[in-house]
Input
Amino acid sequence: MRHRLKDVAERAGVSVKTVSNVVNGYVHVRPDTRARVEEAIAELNYRPNLSARNLRKGRTGVIALAVPELDIPYFAELARHVVSAAAVHGWTVLIDQTGGGPEQERVAAAGIGDHMIDGLIFSPLALTADDLANLDGMPMVLLGERVDHGPADHVAIDNVAAAREITAHLIGLGRRRIAAIGSQRTPEGASARLRLAGYTAALAEAGIGYDEALVASASAWHRADGAAAVRHLLTSGVRPDAVFCFNDTLALGALRALHEAGLRVPDDVAVAGFDDIEDGRFSVPTLTTIAPDKERIAKLAVELLAGRLAGDRDAPPRELQAPYRLTPRESTAPGPRPPR
Amino acid sequence: MRHRLKDVAERAGVSVKTVSNVVNGYVHVRPDTRARVEEAIAELNYRPNLSARNLRKGRTGVIALAVPELDIPYFAELARHVVSAAAVHGWTVLIDQTGGGPEQERVAAAGIGDHMIDGLIFSPLALTADDLANLDGMPMVLLGERVDHGPADHVAIDNVAAAREITAHLIGLGRRRIAAIGSQRTPEGASARLRLAGYTAALAEAGIGYDEALVASASAWHRADGAAAVRHLLTSGVRPDAVFCFNDTLALGALRALHEAGLRVPDDVAVAGFDDIEDGRFSVPTLTTIAPDKERIAKLAVELLAGRLAGDRDAPPRELQAPYRLTPRESTAPGPRPPR
DNA sequence: CCGTGTTTGTACAACGTTGTAAGCAACGTT
DNA sequence: AACGTTGCTTACAACGTTGTACAAACACGG
Output
């Protein structure tokens, strides 16, 4: 059976509140009283009922992290960092899988408001600012691409700059026919838009003409989509000498499809990704990518949330940028052969 | 501001309990009353306070899933299925990262007992049965390898049979010097022990002698450990013609290390894994593996938990087996070259 | 020895919800 | 016309905790 403060109090011969004081580390409790209470707590293996505590305090000590899919490595890695960062503040993280669709994300954003949660870290794929209105003042931090003029705090890396940098890296290798994979038609694909913008900017800087035929769209950003996009390019007669994929899973799919087509990477086609997931460090060949500082992103997000919870609910939304690093690996290694 | 039942009641001109009845779908509410209440709910954007509801009901509607690490793909994929299966029962899943160490797992198992949770699905790496004593009757389902004589329900696949089957598959390809990667010295490595047992059984059946030198241990089961194990084998002069890795991430690391050593897979060395993670379907070459039915594992676990919660807390622990399938891919393809 | 201030403990109410018991109509039956 | 029945609604208490207000015990200086 489960014991309550009252049981402990009776056993220790004190009032309920005194036990509560001991549990909460209140200072003015005589050492011998404290000892008696602690003994009773140990004997009964007492644990506070968090529902009751939460009800009383109006806080739950739980924050939610809403991501599109957990088995997309980028989000799993991010989740790990968020859990760690939240633990520093004594918070538990409830991880919510939205599925990425606009309707599901709306449900997540709204339905999660059913209390039990002090704040929300949200990595939206399809959601726009308007969908986030009815949160009733629950503190929220958005990750990833900016939801334009959103009412919430925001943490991201500079997507345009990063995409430009990695595209420039490909150009620096002497590649000229650089395909881009992951573009999205839908108005929701904010990431895609920003990364495409960086890609075109780099081309323009280098004086390379933009070729519509080199840009392949991908509805989702899974391995299968990357593979499909490459196959589509090749069967339509396009022969790129480099491929910039808008994330690493797309790139891993692309590697696969290029391999199946008998093309060598990086000799025939250089490949670059985005996100720096663990897989890309062990793939054959290893994957050149943009490595966002995920740990820092998580830390910043949690701290923004902590700030809101600590008081300034009504401060204007803040936009923070996390650092990233271009990380060249075998898939864009120069020279005729990758270094064994 | 947040609204309460009382606010809705005042606005609709009824009692608090009537509003509660409407919210909970109680039948005997006159249609016009119901309409008035629902209107008031909508106007105020009322959401029930779950802490209060939980306190009153003694249930939280939340179950926990404790896994060693979220960014191990197998656990991420499993988590997705558990979340889906739990949603069917109206439960939210709190995902807990234990880190896999014995001490951390003990903390997870015990500390999670601080209410807020109706039950626990636990995938222990290092924990033994004794560590699970102080759960105070909280229903728990264990995933993965059996914690011997544990007091809890249990869902797993037949590891020995699966390992034997995939080893036999390698033998069937004509391979004779089959390395095993992932063995563990520690008493905790239950999975490792079972899979090793299947490996030796298959060798024995085929009349192949067991060679200690072909068995490489790995403290963790990450890609880096798989790569390190292969490098270790090769530098110590061992020349296997096949490698059975105790999970897929080890195998992906092994593929990488073999590639770096200039060995071709499957021509020179066949490689097999275990778990059927998404990566293995797109790696170069694609990975032969044992595919446990993760969806079914998750479903069974949730249903066992549901059974406990519904009543029979004291029924004897049950052991359920989930199906698996041997899934041959390129990394063990027969013939001189993998199919283009 | 008294007044004053500090320490230590208590009783009570409140957080927002739902189960229980009971009240009050309106109805059809005797 | 009195009587259960049924349908709908309400008041009240309880879930386990903590904040507030206060009382009792104690320490100290004048």
In short: Chain B has a mean pLDDT of 88. The two ends of chain B are 64 Å apart (CA to CA). Chain B touches chain A through 52 residues (CB under 8 Å). Chain B has eleven helices and twelve strands.
